[in-house]
Structure formats: C-alpha cells, structure tokens
Amino acid sequence: MREHVTFTPRYGDGMGEAPASEPVGPRVNEASGSDRREGRARVRFGVRPATPADEPAVESIVLARSLWLEERGFPSWRADVGRVTALTDNVDGSMWILEADGKPAGCTTVTDSTPPMAWTEQELGEPSLYLYTTVTDPRFRAWKPGTLLALWAVDRAFREGRVWVRRGCRYPGLVRYYQQQGFTVVHETQRSRGPMFLMARRAAGLPAIAASLRP
C-alpha cells in the first residue's frame, strides 16, 4: 500500500524543524532553494514499503546524507551503509520508503517492538511503534522529510491504537531536533559506544497529515 501526502512546510505547526537525520543546520525558508528556481512550490510525497529493488536508491541516499554530515564535521552513516541497505530486503515489512514525486527521497524503519535497553517492564508492555534508521536525501531539506516521516509514524501509531512512538539516538544535536518534533527524553543510558538517549512521543491523530493521506 502506498500512502500519499502533498507537503509544503509551514512554521508553527510542527512541520518546520530540521529533518530527523540532520543533527544540525539552519532553518530553510519554504520558498528558498532549488524549488523556487524550478518554479515548484509543492512536492507530492508518498510512503510505501521498501523492496529489494530500492537498495541502489537507499545506498545513494545514505551516501549523500553521509557527505552532507561529514562536510559539517558530524558523524555520518557511511560505515553503516551496508546495514541500512540490507533492510530493503524487508522480510518483516519494517522498512518504509519516502518518495518525492515518485522517486525515493528517504527511508525509515518502524517496528512494533521496543528494544529493552533502559525501558521499564511497564513501558515495554505499552503498545508502541519504534522508529529508527531514518535517513533522508539532503536535496529535499526544504520540505523537512525527516519530520514528515516522524509525524507519519505518530499518526500511524494513533490509527493502529498504539500509545507511543519511540526512538533512540546518541548525539545531543539529534536530541534537540527530535524534541522540536515533539519527542521527549525518557531515559539516558550508557552503552559501549557512549550515551544513548531514549525518547518518546505520544501517538496522536494529526489532521493535517491524515487528511492528505490516501491509500
């Protein structure tokens, strides 16, 4: 099933933050960048399950995002490109592709189980979606695709009768941007590679997205 939403970023409605896969970076005005030069004000985004045929596109997205991060002096996805692209096999249906005008522009992985880490027994028993491996093509920064994927997951969790959308990250910069998307830090734990911040946002129906989504 493919879900579509036509999205133009607006500030003040939760859709104007930097993408989830961008730990830093200035805000981009909705009328700036290549889309103004191309005369486009809107892009049609779709969300669909990944297939093995998406592997080359996902690899390109991960490498483009990695270069964007490295040029700004931040840790990148480069060492993990093989791990991310392998998820396109999608045997459990957990990887989703964000399309922009019919072409892959990002990916995320959504599961219905929360990895134990520092979550309590009670929290692990609460119905939730766990969001990870969100990577977006930096060419689409003006539309905040990482935020769009996060809000899509929040609305999807609500429609499925779940209570939370959860995610984890390692970098304070990402924590700040996820907080702008409505996530809060629930636990902080030490892992072998350093601190891990466990975050959550309560599932909610988002009319601006739900009204535009169509099967």
Summary tags:
215 residues; alpha+beta; Aminopeptidase; 8-stranded mixed β-sheet; 7 helices; 8 strands; 27% helix; globular
Can you describe what's shown?
- By secondary structure, this protein is an alpha+beta fold.
- It has one domain: Aminopeptidase, CATH 3.40.630.30.
- It has 7 helices and 8 strands, in the order βαβααββαβαβαββα.
- The protein has helices at residues 34-37, 55-71, 81-86, 121-124, 145-159, 172-180, 207-210; strands spanning 3-7, 43-49, 95-100, 103-111, 128-136, 164-169, 184-191, 194-202.
- The protein has an 8-stranded mixed sheet, sandwiched between helices.
- Strand 3 and strand 4 (103-111) form a beta hairpin.
- The longest helix is centred in the first third of the chain and has 17 residues, at 55-71.
- The chain is globular.
- Mean pLDDT is 82; it is low at 6-40.
